[in-house]
Amino acid sequence: MRYLVWIWMLLLVAGAAPAADPGDSLVGPDSLAPRRASLTPLPFAFYSQFFHWTAGVYLRSQDLVQAGAQADVVLFGSSNGTRYLYHQMRDFHLPGLPRLFLEPTVYAGRFGEIRAYTDNPAAPAFPGRFGERAPGRRLSDPDHYLSLAGRDLWVRAKLRWLAPLGHGARTPLPRPVLERGRLVGGARGGASLRHSGLTFLEVEPFHRRQLDTTVRGASFGLTRENWDFEDNPARGGFQSFSWQRDPGQAGVRAPWSIVQGDLRGVWPLDRRRTGRTVLALNAWSGVCPTWNDSHLELGPGGERRDVLHRPPAFAAPALGSDTRFRAYYQNRFTDKAFLYYGAELRQLLPGNPLAGLRVHWLQAAAFAEVGRVAPAWSPGRLHEHMHESVGVGLRLMFTDLVLRLDVARGREGSLVQMFMGQAF
């Protein structure tokens, strides 16, 4: 219970930050007129520390499946042998139930050789490394990892019930209207603290099988989206609280739970509050309360073994990715508890030499991140001896998609990160 109290306190503090002038003309249930369905293809190429050189095609459909619904499909391959298909749908409401939304997500494919900051309990590759020096822990060696390659299937089906609050008081939802990549109508929040935005109750069953390891369960959450434009917010905030549970299966997989809170805020800093200069903040923290629990099982040879109630490395919340702790390899740090703070200053550039290539604007960014993992959720301990990541980046709006390039440096060196969307 003490974990829930601390995370709710964080949520309340984040929600107390002011958003914007309630009279902002961009905020309101406008832009509801019918639109022509669209399908936008985007070939792409980028470098990722996880996949290396990557190329593929991104397809975005708007109003094709249902008025107001958006569907994304990505096919890509990389120089390390990765081949993936990704599909996600957003804002698709169930027929006859305008407040109940279904958002399915599917990842399917094969990943090439990657680093997994974990160890094999049956045959340890790094004997003598325990506690906070075990692979993936706070004091672990960056060279202590397993190299893995194989198949991956990840399916999620999020059900979201829209509460009749703020911009969710009426349906259908307003749809963003962009002009040269800037929001000019159809904002979904950011006008006031209490009377704007969207509030959702969420249930998300999930199934993932990576190599020979499977997780299967559900996540239950409460989310408040109170910013003007999700893909590139200029004002407002986001708060989310969730409990994730895999009940396990005797002799197959261990049970585990994760409780976490995610807080974000965006403030326009320019004098006219147009969003040309923006400060974005993110705080993310949580705990695996079952981390130290265990039970005894009989192994294949009849031996008794202790099974810890922990998620596998690919399912555990971790620090190190293209959005959080960008100077560190994917899933570099993981433990029972985690804490992350991020700050990013974004500035639209006055010139645009790429305007002839359907690029609407260029945006420079500077960011700083701190955080750590720990064997217990303790505010004092989580704020001691934190790792850091600092860097600069460039964003561009290609048609209606934000593309991002970041260069970050931390204690273990520098990394270049390229991906789609803002980091937070």
Give the key terms.
mainly beta, 2 helices, disordered N terminus
What can you see in these coordinates?
With 424 residues, the chain is mainly beta. The protein has a domain at 39-171. The protein is built from 2 helices and 21 strands. The protein has helices at 2-15, 379-382, and strands at 38-48, 52-62, 70-78, 83-90, 92-93, 100-116, 146-162, 177-179, 182-185, 198-210, 213-227, 236-246, 256-268, 277-287, 294-298, 304-308, 337-348, 359-374, 387-398, 401-410, 413-420. It has a 17-stranded antiparallel β-sheet that branches. A two-stranded antiparallel ribbon has the order 8-9. The protein is globular. The model is unreliable at 1-30 (pLDDT under 50).
Outline:
The chain is mostly beta strands. Helices cover 4% and strands 50% of the residues. The chain has a domain at 39-171.
Strand-helix topology:
Blueprint: H1 2-15, E1 38-48, E2 52-62, E3 70-78, E4 83-90, E5 92-93, E6 100-116, E7 146-162, E8 177-179, E9 182-185, E10 198-210, E11 213-227, E12 236-246, E13 256-268, E14 277-287, E15 294-298, E16 304-308, E17 337-348, E18 359-374, H2 379-382, E19 387-398, E20 401-410, E21 413-420
Antiparallel strand pairs: 1-2, 2-3, 3-4, 4-6, 5-6, 6-7, 7-10, 8-9, 10-11, 11-12, 12-13, 13-14, 14-17, 15-16, 17-18, 18-19, 19-20, 20-21
Helix content: under 10%
Using only C-alpha atoms, the radius of gyration works out to: 22 Å
Determine the structural class based on helices, strands and strand pairing.
mainly beta
**Low-pLDDT ranges:** 1-30
What is the number of beta strands? 21
